[in-house]
Amino acid sequence: MNPLIEFHNAAYSRRQFFRKSGAGLGMAALGSLLGQRTLSAAERLASAGNPLPQIAPKAKRAIYISLIGAPSQIDLFDYKPELSKRFKEDLKDWLKQQGERLTGMTSGQAAFPLAPSIFKFDRHGKSGTQVSELLPWHSKMVDDLCVIRSMHTDAINHEPANQLICTGSMQAGKASIGSWLSYGLGSMNEELPAFVVLHAAHSSPHSNVQAISSRLWGSGYLPGKFSGVALRSLGDPVLFLQDTPGISRETRRTMLDGINALNRRSFSAIGDPEIELRMQQYEMAFKMQASVPELTDLSNEPESTYQLYGDDSKKRGTFASSALMARRLLERGVRFVQIFHRGWDQHGNLPRDLASQCKDVDQGCYGLIQDLKQRGMLEDTLVIWGGEFGRTVYCQGGLSETDYGRDHHPRCFSIWMAGGGIKGGQVYGETDEMSYNIVRDPVHIRDLHATILHSLGLDHERLSFKFQGLDQRLTGVEPAKVIKELFA
Length: 488
Description:
By secondary structure, this protein is α/β, with parallel strands linked by helices. The protein has a single domain, classed as Alkaline Phosphatase, subunit A, CATH 3.40.720. It has 14 helices and 17 strands. The strands form five sheets. Strands 1, 4, 5, 6, 7, 8, 11, 12 and 15 form a nine-stranded mixed beta sheet that branches. The longest helix is centred in the C-terminal third of the chain and has 25 residues, at about 350-375. The radius of gyration is 24 Å and the shape is globular.
């Protein structure tokens, strides 16, 4: 007798046997009715007699544009005109009164000179939203956007801050927001993953480029099938996408069927869920061999699409090309797309590098929003844009009238959201005259996550996964609220 089988059989109590047997038969019957469609968490709980509360979803899918490095809110969306009169004023004593946490990059500075933004701001659209001259294409679509100026976070350095905004925790090993959406909502297609990650190239050659890892799109304690799948911007979108020369699709199908037969025997004997996951991954890889080449072939896009997204959309790997690819993924039933664009960490040379970064993403974002809108997809697609924290009002290093840098600032920063039931043309929240503290309507990262889940029809307090004896949630155990004022 196999000792693994003995242990597996002995591990069940009588009560566990009847409970699991009953649930297994019910799920098998339900699975036969649903065919190959992936069950969402809500459907799985409903089949077990424990349904999630029904929230009417505003959105079916989402795109998260993650600007790694943290763009400066005071130079883009949080206009503070009075600061120009206080150029180079030393804020050292004022910062002590605020109880400011300083990073190791500025804690040793003898002075903390105030650095007003050198960029012009104007009001745009019917809403009169103030936008920096660095984002001329954004200024054309402000009535589609909800700008949140009152975001705040707990982290002051990049790695924990990115983990917090992507996974809801500064600790490694947690499930990412895309994985939670895949788990909670299931898949809308059988040919592509539910969660896809795109890495857009950045053009600023001198900026600090933060390293990121697959933890930001991993599934953590959730089953591995809910992890994000990264499509490469250079070479084959997925490694080993092409069959080996001399092996036909029919031969590959036969090989896969044989491997799956062996895996099913192992799964029947041992019951390890990783074996079942491996079979699912093999099947998805086989389907992607046919679906991904068609997905990434942009030759059938009309010239008007390239004009909308900008000339960079013809260059694979650029942000504009990634934005166009995101739209194509959503059209094919992908549930969640996350675009990572790095290089926003301007500790020095901010005017030069921030302008370059904004040029990278500005028209691509405009093209994406307008493309979704003209296809009738924006109303049920949620788009989120932003970094992991804000930047300081004081300068890091030397300050001149045309050049400065800014350190990390967790107390306030700006993001925007569009589509998915979000009311466009509004500005939510307010900061003080220094863009330093929030004075109205603060929004924590947990509140943002709760609001995103709500837009997609999920209750952040009920969407959970049992792990290590705890009901794990994206928003954790601390208070989080849905910002209902954001919705139309």
